[in-house]
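In practice, a research group might receive sequence data for several interacting partners and want a quick structural hypothesis before committing to experiments. The following worked case mirrors that situation: the sequences arrive first, and a predicted assembly follows.
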Amino acid sequence: MRDVAIVGIGQTPVGEHWDRSLRDLAVEAVLAAMDDAHVRRADALYVGNMLSGTLSFQEHLGALVAEYAGLEGIEAVKVEAACGSAAAALRQAVLAVESGRVEVAIAVGVEKLTELASKCTTNALAMAADADYETVMGLSFVAINALLMRRYMHEYGVSKEDFAAFTVNAHANAQHNPFAMFRAPVTRQQYAAAKMIADPINLLDSSPVSDGAAAVVVVPAERAREFSEKPVRVAACEVGTDTVALDNRANPLWLKGVERSARRAYRRAGVGPEEIGVFELHDAFSIMAALSLEASGLAEPGTAVRLANEGAITPRGRFPIATMGGLKGRGHPVGATGLYQVVECVLHLRGEAPEAVQVENVQYAMAQNIGGSGATVITTILERLTP
Amino acid sequence: MDIPRNWRLREQRYRLQGTRCTACGECHFPPRHVCPRCKGRALEPYRFAGRGTVYSYTVIYQAPEGFEQYVPYVVALVDLEEGVRVTAQLTDVDPEEVTIGMPVEMVLRKLGEEGERGLILYGYKFRPRIEGSAGGGP
Amino acid sequence: MSVMKPVREVGIVGYGAYIPRYRLAAEEISRLWRGGQDAGALPVKEKSVPGPDEDTVTMAVEAAQNALRRANVPPEAIRAVWVGSESHPYAVKPTGTLVAQALGIAPATLAADLEFACKAGSEAVQAAVALVGSGMADYALAVGMDTAQGRPGDALEYTAAAGGAAYVIGPADEAVAVLEGSYSYVTDTPDFFRRAHQHYPEHANRFTGEPAYFHHIVNAARGLMEALGLTPEDFAGAVFHQPNVKFPRKVARELGFSPDQIRAGLLVGEVGNTYAGSSLLGFSALLDEARPGDRLLLVSFGSGAGSDAMSFVVTERIEAARDRAPRTRAYVARRAPVDYATYARWRRKFTV
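A structural hypothesis for the assembly, expressed as tokens:
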């Protein structure tokens, strides 16, 4: 086994790309990452995506994206793990290069959610849940998170208004990210007045429906400097799973998938949560931000919301999250999100994050991508390589 | 119309039929192939009594396709007496009456319809227990 | 003509009611369609309205579940499931199989749906009596259940309601009420009908009274009493089909029954006309209050037209059975009013 590094990153703006297709977005991100790494070829392409078949009537993305990115002929497959698809694709790239079988691997995450009517998208996203026992009951994906949020409020005596801290932070940071979908701040008053979707989750607790693609180039660490002046080492990229249906978990407020994935990542990287300078977590809903912080060991159970209100999560706080907007502010093109998070972590480690949100002296940055309500979790720890 | 799928699930949907591990006695819903507790594979059908309490709930205002006619409706996590948690709608209740810990009992209701011409789907929901009821499903 | 009676003594071994939670006040319909000018002469106070997730199947399952609990027999012992209704959810596909499956009665059972306007429920009871009475089976389940609809603004809209009851028919020595005999009276009388594919029924206004409701009920009830050698004084209670409050009161008077005899079973003012469920539902309320030894009369009426009259004698088993399931009045008392707009939405009166 050998160390691997990320030597190229690419991302498209997140938004409603009416004029661009699934393959347009994927190719743009792949080419940007290849340009960034100064490569013209690769050995393998792993495409993370959740809903191409359902919303674009297109499967077989591996060969398709390879072909249109000028990489026809190489090994190329699609990887699916609901909203965790992109980081799951990265994991495959990392394993491939680590093993020595592949020299240059590209992982790209792409999602096109605006193709059909929003009802179709809502239904499609719910496919991350258990179709026979959750979705059939009229449960949207938002509603699953609402069940968690209600219980959290009940168990820990937290009020709905307290969750505003996550949204306010995400939007404040997204303002500075040119790739973010929402580039305007949100106030606590706006949060309190937002339309309810599935009580207690309102519109401003929820990440938006968006399109986008992000990609990275992975190579052996020993060769990293052939490609980049500022390579970033993949210290860990570890997967943990849990039950798909929320109701099969003894304590739904403790995301075991997160705990398993994060513990494996800390162990592999040889670091603890206190050494993480930036944490791009999976704040698809504000409750998920709280639960992820807790199960990742950054906050005690039931304390994440309070810590968020004390400013711990801002770029100048103790554990900055959603520094470029997170899923809430940057947007959440589901099967691409995990690689946006990784790209953002790389920017921090390179010192290339937007000035207002750049966290200083980051040695380790962590990205955590979650599929479903915590059933698949991929935690990636990235390390700055000093020249 | 996914007729075979809904047909296949009828004992579970109509009668809360799950499984019980013959080795460790653990009850499961939905039915399992491998006991999550002891990993035993000798499981037998087991019917739940259909009585429980609300563990958590949400009131849905933006419904998935096919559920618009029920808005606003309540979906809950219900803790069954046998120690299993299920996801189900609450029915015959005003959303503002629902509380965590509320006792509920299973009833069979329409889950939805596959359009004007398609199948009508029936399955378990829960409602506040009513006077004189032994509680639970059929 | 002689009384109809099976060779084997049979009776009701279990019974159960169901009424949905929601109510629409007749005043609310009057306000919308009549400017409230008929508020002094409304046929009922309010009617039951099924929730948006209820239909004849779901309501039949709950009533039958209550009946099975009172009968205290294992579901697989039931050998027929017959559901009488004019609002079966499917035009083709039996309600009976779904009820049988949901209750664990399937698969070794007969199952079918019956239609005879408001008499479909008592017809199902008659069939169950015949099956058990012949010795073909020990137990059979009969259900009368409806989610009746009247055309918006029509007189029927005031009363067309949802609910019904289920009966497990079994051997007389296990019965809470033993059947003494029945008498049916049927003629071709088109007082009310609904053509195939039509959503709402047509009715012949005042023609639905004398030549239809009154003629058939009176002849069935008199036929039964004459055949059995009984008079109204012999009955502790009676239920006549309840399309509104006025008709059953009037027919009771005409037959010589006192207001006291029909009081316990007269639910129509509070729940409306539950069609195929109506007389069976009233009878379940009567059983809830009956004492051992009481003789009870059930007379249904279905448009088209006909009546089944049945006489039962209550046994001591009623006392233990009664509290195994919710009483009919508990369902009457469980009420949440809805406005016309909500009712119209749930009953799909809007094009969406």
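Before designing any experiment, note the following. Chain C touches chain B at residues 21, 51-55, 57-58, 61-62, 64-65, 68-69, 75, 89-90, 98, 101-104, 323-327, 330-331, 333-334, 336, 345-346, 348, 352 (CB under 8 Å). The first helix of chain C runs from residue 26 to 34.
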